[in-house]
Batch of 2 targets.
Target 1
Amino acid sequence: MEGIIELALVRQEQQQLARAAKSTAVVAAAPAAAATSLSPRRGEKSGEAEAEDEEGKDGEEEEEEDEDEDEELPPLGANVSIFDDKVFDTVEECVQYMKTRFGFYVPDTEYLQDLEGFLCYLGEKVKLGGVCLYCQKQLRPHRPCQAHMVSKSHCKVRYEEDVDLDEYEDFYDFTASYEDMPLDENGDPVSATASLSAIGELVLPDGRVAGHRDFRVYYKQYFPSAREEHPGVLAQQREELARLGIMLDGSQKTYDRQDIVAMPDTQVMTLLVKYHKEVRRNNMVQQRAKQHLDFVEKRKENRNRAQQQLGQVRKNEVHNRDYHSRLV
């Protein structure tokens, strides 16, 4: 039995060496064949040389496709560093290493429910999707994306409340943060100490109003009296507001021209600023949603590719086992 197995292994090694020698001979003979195939006329080749070139190109293309198919997948997992592929024994060691080496930290850890899933998602986003975690720039997956994040100090998670939290809501649970707060009819927490006005200002319980920081530029401005105002500019702003038809607090009431004419100039300006800010935010949300969908499709393709590679490995194992069994 042992002698038969050794004989089979020797035969396999001989076949592999023969294939390697044959491929080396073909590569070495290619330049000589190309040199001898030139016709007497300068720059022209014979029909046989052209056919050989076409066959060589087809072979190179097939080899490139085989190399792409055999390309190894990047290391993934919760215990693998997102920025340099270093593997650790535990997830805690991996998080501590990324925090010390790259300044990476996990936001709102007290509300995070699935740390391993969160780290796996970020790793796949960088190594498979090629998306920077901070600037959301689309790059080449794995090494180029990692190099960009390290060089630009983008080794951190973009965490804006109205833009990025929807992407990570599957891993967080914020119900514990407002358990003791009263809820409105929609189930949203209601503050018992302060409220927001129609333009985003904070109204305190004693009646004082704290302005929003987005409007601090306008708070510092000096607004002239009605006689010193420029009628053309004010009329243009009110015309734009009437054309947009902005609604406040989600109400169904649309302000007509009489209401807009009766508004103070400061309210007209704040409404226009609020409208343009909402338009920019919606555009950003749509862009992030599109990137997220593209990334999900890439994750599916990668999983199918990994399953195909695993099936090919198992098929080869079964083939080798059957071959040895036939020899026995």
Target 2
Amino acid sequence: MAQLILEDVSKTFGDGTVAVDRVSFTVEDREFMVLVGPSGCGKSTTLRLIAGLDEVTAGRIVIDGRKVNDVPPRDRDIAMVFQNYALYPHMSVRENLAFGLKMRRTPRDEVDRLVAEAAAVLGLGGLLEKRPAALSGGQRQRVALGRALVRQPKIFLFDEPLSNLDARLRVQMRAELIRLYREIEATIVYVTHDQVEAMTMGSRIAVLDSGRIQQIAGPQELYADPANAFVAGFIGSPAMNFVSGRLLADPGGIVFTAADGAWNLPVTGTEKTVPREPEGLSVRLGIRPEHLELQTADEPDPNGAAIRAEVEVIEPLGYDTFVTCRAGENLLVVRTSGMDPTAGMSVYLVPDPAGIRIFEAQTGDRLI
């Protein structure tokens, strides 16, 4: 396996579209790096640049200490697994697994050994003589994985390989990919738009938007300490609640006032870049559903830090219930397991001060 380095890599297409804008990151040897973001953010283009399927406009790509900008895909010693499997329909599973090795003129005994090893790892032993048409979606994806695995490349590239599977198979294949990664200790770059996949699979995650990296961190750090409003809103399900408003100076500290004037909230915590005179600064307050506690309206307002609201939508999901409440002009989702609310019920939402995040309204940069 090998280290992968991208240094200020950019890709501009002929029509002037900037798909990748000065992207830099390092994937260490045997690391599982996930590139995640919405459609059109540049993650698949970045993968294609690493593979050599698209040409780099600017910057450097280095694999195992060697600059590969001008190296053809076949000579980069990478293997790519695509979303659509790309299996040869007229070949058996055995032949699909062996095809790339035969093209490299690998000795037959070595081909048989590598195919047998990959089939054993991926549970394909009983399917080797079948053709792709006779396989399920999950089985086809395992064959596509096996075809990459037998090549024993320096780096594996995965381009949304689970997107065509149903929900149950996605969960199953996620677990199989994690197990496979631990067994072969590979260097992997994995592209997905699914933040659940990213959070459960990656050693580190690079969040992209509009061709630029917004943040690179481990799953828990991304969730708890997002660098900006985009990362905070993209990572997490259900998404972080956002409320527009202003910061006001107060004798006791800083107070957030919702834009509709319906409620105020004291803001504590580590101050990052809040101006010394925050008066009137337009911001967005962010708080995750689990950081809001639901209380009945007849309970006392604790320290003036509760938000008066009305229950609108209730979504029971077994152990947890997601409750959407209206507070003034804003809808806030609360995650709860200790209350059985009803639609139209008046409640208090009590925020956990440690869970409050403040973002600058115009730039989205994190302030607190």
